[in-house]
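I'll show a record.
***
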Amino acid sequence: MTISITPDFWQGKRVLLTGHTGFKGTWMALWLERLGAQVTGFGLQPDTDPSLFTLLQPWPDITSIIGDVRDPEAIRQTVRQAAPDIVIHMAAQALVRRSYREPVDTLAANVMGTAHLMEALREAENLQVALIITSDKVYQNTDDGVAFAEDAPLGGDDPYSASKACQEIVTSSWAKSYFAERDAVIATARAGNVVGGGDFSEDRLIPDIYRALASGEKLVLRSPDATRPWQHVLDLNAGYLMYVEHLAASNGKTPIAMNFGPEPGESYTVGALTEKMMTAMGQDLDPDVKPSKLKEKTLLSVDAQAGRNVLGWDAKLDVDATVRLTADWYGAFLNGADARTITEQQLEDYGVSG
């Protein structure tokens, strides 16, 4: 894939990026910084130690606001301060297992947090595009392995999935009710199972592998046979940026949704990805398997043909390149390399100048 991102589009653009302190958000913040955008980030204080956002400090070219999307006044004040042309909404409670422990907080962050943002954006006079990042788990998944296209029924059998499906509905309703007559396009992007260097979240495969290597403790897999549409954070963020540019050039007045993921059939099991990661890092972990008592879908795949047809987007990194790049990041970090140097180098190697 050739990266079809237009630096001139982003140069000087006022961008509000929520969730900028998270894993995907930090990579996106660094990319937008290199594109010359005027970025205001709004997100929680990082809840992992280490965290990629903290490791990459200082951020001299980004206005970082620590706040909670569940606080409507904080969101309103941030939107007024940022006066955004573009909004990329990544802030979320993004962990399935945590959603079982904290279902109401998950709904509050993902559903009401989106409603608070959408309500605040009604006052954003310069808004061109708001891209709301949801998940590939928004679909009613019967676990039969079908690749979901964007018109598949929404649903969710766990609190996280239900919250993200509701997020889609909230976004659509606000778009139709309050933005249909404005020169602003509201859209959603559905993707998940993103991997890459610098993710230290709980209950995620790659961070679990990193922690096992760093501590010498046993790696535990919950669902080694579960398949997921794994993709690198750089491919995914490239898709988001291309999507925003496309939306800004369109005259669409209705909500739009788009999947981002590898070709159907390119999903790999948790066990297979673990083996690839171990090989790439020159390690030999013999993981334990302790099935989770919490219900998670075994099969998950999305049909991202629309993104390929409309945007010309496709994954530049196949699964082997994704694993190699991810393993290189963690390997260098474990050997004491500077995290910002590693991350910027991988951006440059991907084709992001700055």
